[in-house]
Write a structure and sequence with these properties.
The complex is a heterodimer. Chain A is mostly helical. Helix content of chain A is about 55%, strand content about 0%. Chain A has 12 helices and 2 strands; from the N terminus they run αααβαααααααβαα. Chain A has helices at about 5-10, 10-20, 25-30, 45-65, 70, 75-105, 110-135, 140-155, 165-195, 210-225, 235-255, 265-275, and strands at about 30-35, 230. In chain A, strands 1-2 form a two-stranded antiparallel ribbon. The radius of gyration of chain A is 27 Å and the shape is elongated. In chain A, about 45% of the residues are buried. Chain B is mostly helical. Chain B starts with 7 loop residues before the first helix and ends with a helix. The chains are: A mainly alpha, B mainly alpha. At the A-B interface, helix 6, helix 7, helix 8, helix 9 and helix 12 of A face helix 1, helix 2, helix 4, helix 5 and helix 6 of B.
């Protein structure tokens, strides 16, 4: 056994060979693509990536000043606006990308994993956005966390994912979910490069063909390398242009529309505005919060996450003199 | 506790114990009593009483309090057999007004704590918070957490989760939160598994391809796909859809005609 043979058996060498086989440089950074790819329908994917990049970089800027920097510093507020609008653009582009791929049936030709990683990235993006809204430290955060907690508690998730725990939500937002999101998006992009973009649905209609042999032939054609017309395609140039456009759009939206920051409610403010609410004790005979008529919004409180922690909000009009009566409990549950 | 066949909420147990009376009233008043003898006396009286007596006082106070008035900002509750409770509640109000209650609820955790569960639960427990949110178009009937303060887009991607809260029949269910989570989860799984689900995965192909040669010839979609798989694709599909409708109608007519 020669030294070269020994080297070839190394894990590193095997992984390198496998990677090159799966994704040769020409496929990773192609300079030609099927002609049908030169269309606006394929722009949403790369534009989503560009918007994600802007969101990440603006998030870095916010991290420099700390979580409450943007509340009192105009520069911080502008970066928050950039962060908000890049996220709005990202989600809008992502949804368009998802729909476009659905109508192209882009999972054909052994591309199911490409579709699945895309959907997982979409779900991770929603979690990322949700935890971001919970980390804002303003009225929106207060409202979203108190409104959403019961849904998570009802299925037991609230026990380890407490939406009212600012520190936990911030860490999920800036560490855990971004790592997962970037990893899944990376896998998704690599899958696209490995399998290539799905071919157009042909006249035979992949989903409509009858007969096993016909179906197999269609599936093989979908999975095969594209033999039709191709055109020159600068993937990096496209990415750069998309990034520049998304960045310009984000700056324009942030500059013109800014971002909301309604201050959070404090107990002190409430007590000054509606002092009568603080004189109301919880009905002493009750040992369990009475079930409210559920509203069309998650509002109930789970005992799993907070053992008999609070009286539940009761919907309906309040009397003018006691616009916001609360039921401070003096009787232990 | 919500339950649909089973209740996962009970499996996880209590991870964040909060006792309203102790955490929201007794503990803040205890902190106040350390420096304010006037607040210490009623608290000591209350603590020394038996649970039955405490309950009796609380009930009596609950009745009397409905007729409470404010004189120069101070609460005046009609006389009743409610022991030290009126004084304690007046102290609670003083604490709340000064901002000490905010600080105390936050202080009920380690020095560098970042958990706002207790103050948020306190704030949530009343109509004031809701009325503020409603004024900003954030209530449940306005699709709640999907919205954002001001005229900003908020989180429209949460529509699927909030959709189930609007469904007639489910809106008033005692288990609406579980229903919403389960249905959203089910829809997400369906989306994830589209490539493997016959019927669902065939929708694009069914729409893409046309059922009769007349429509195909009219639309010329195949050539459009190869040349331009976007742009003209939408207009092509619209044409194809209309052609398909015309085709189906003509087929029906020819079948039923004598």
């Amino acid at each position: 056994v020669t030294a070269e043979d020994e080297d070839a058996r190394m894990w590193t060498a095997r992984v390198r060979r496998g990677a090159l086989l799966l994704l040769p440089p020409g496929r990773l950074l192609p300079d030609r693509q099927p002609a049908y790819v030169a269309s606006w329908a394929y722009v949403f994917g790369v534009a989503s990536l560009a918007a994600l990049g802007v969101a990440i970089v603006s998030g870095f800027a916010l991290a420099l000043g700390g979580p409450d920097w943007w509340h009192y510093n105009p520069v911080g507020h502008f970066f928050n606006s950039l962060h908000l609008w890049s996220v709005e653009l990202f989600m809008a582009l992502l949804v368009n990308h998802l729909w476009a791929k659905f109508w192209m049936a882009a999972w054909r030709g052994r591309r199911a994993m490409t579709w699945i990683t895309g959907v997982v990235a979409f779900v991770a993006s929603i979690v990322e956005c949700f935890t971001g809204y919970l980390s804002q430290q303003n009225f929106d955060s207060q409202w979203i966390s108190t409104s959403g907690k019961d849904a998570f508690n009802s299925v037991g998730v609230g026990a380890f994912f407490n939406v009212m725990n600012f520190g936990q939500m911030l860490m999920w937002h800036i560490v855990l979910v971004p790592i997962i999101l970037v990893a899944v998006v990376g896998a998704h992009v690599l899958m696209v490069r490995v399998r290539g973009v799905a071919h157009p649905i042909d006249d035979a209609g992949a989903g409509r063909v009858r007969g096993r042999s016909r179906q197999q032939a269609t599936a093989a054609a979908d999975a095969a390398v594209w033999r039709g017309p191709t055109r020159r395609y600068g993937i990096l140039k496209e990415g750069t242009i998309a990034s520049a456009i998304v960045l310009a759009l984000t700056f324009a939206l942030a500059g013109v529309l800014s971002s909301p920051d309604v201050p959070p409610i404090t107990i002190a403010t409430w007590a000054r505005v509606a002092p009568a609410d603080f004189l109301v004790p919880r009905p002493a005979s009750s040992t369990e919060p009475a079930r409210p008529r559920p509203t069309a919004r998650p509002t109930t409180t789970s005992r799993a996450a907070c053992s008999g922690c609070c009286s539940r909000r009761r919907p309906g009009p309040a009397s003018p003199s006691r616009s916001s009566r609360r039921r401070t409990s003096l009787s232990s549950r | 506790v919500q339950r649909l066949l089973f209740s996962p909420q009970t499996w996880s147990g209590v991870t964040q114990p909060v006792v309203a009376a102790q955490d929201f009233v007794i503990q803040p008043l205890t902190a106040l009593a350390r420096t304010d003898p006037a607040a210490a006396a009623p608290l000591a009286t209350y603590r020394a009483a038996s649970p039955a007596q405490q309950l009796k006082w609380a009930n009596a106070y609950a009745t009397a309090e409905t007729k409470a008035t404010f004189v120069a900002g101070n609460p005046v509750v009609p006389k009743a057999d409610d022991g030290p409770v009126p004084a304690m509640m007046a102290d609670e109000l003083t604490l709340a007004r000064s901002g000490a209650l905010d600080a105390d609820l936050l202080a009920q955790q380690p020095f560098y704590g970042t958990n706002f569960t207790k103050p948020l639960l306190f704030i949530e427990d009343g109509q004031y918070f809701v009325s503020q949110a409603t004024a900003m178009n954030l209530s449940g009937s306005q699709w709640g957490v999907m919205n954002e303060t001001g005229s900003y887009p908020g989180q429209p991607w949460l529509w699927l989760w909030l959709l189930w809260y609007q469904v007639p029949g489910w809106t008033n269910s005692a288990n609406i939160d579980m229903i919403a989570i389960y249905m959203t989860g089910l829809a997400t799984i369906l989306l994830l598994l589209v490539p493997f689900l016959p019927g669902l995965r065939d929708i694009p192909c069914e729409i893409e391809t046309l059922p009769c040669s007349v429509a195909t010839a009219e639309s010329g979609c195949w050539s459009a796909n190869v040349i331009d798989h976007g742009g003209r694709w939408i207009s092509c599909r619209t044409t194809a859809f209309l052609a398909r409708a015309r085709c189906s109608r003509s087929l029906r007519t020819s079948t039923t005609a004598p």
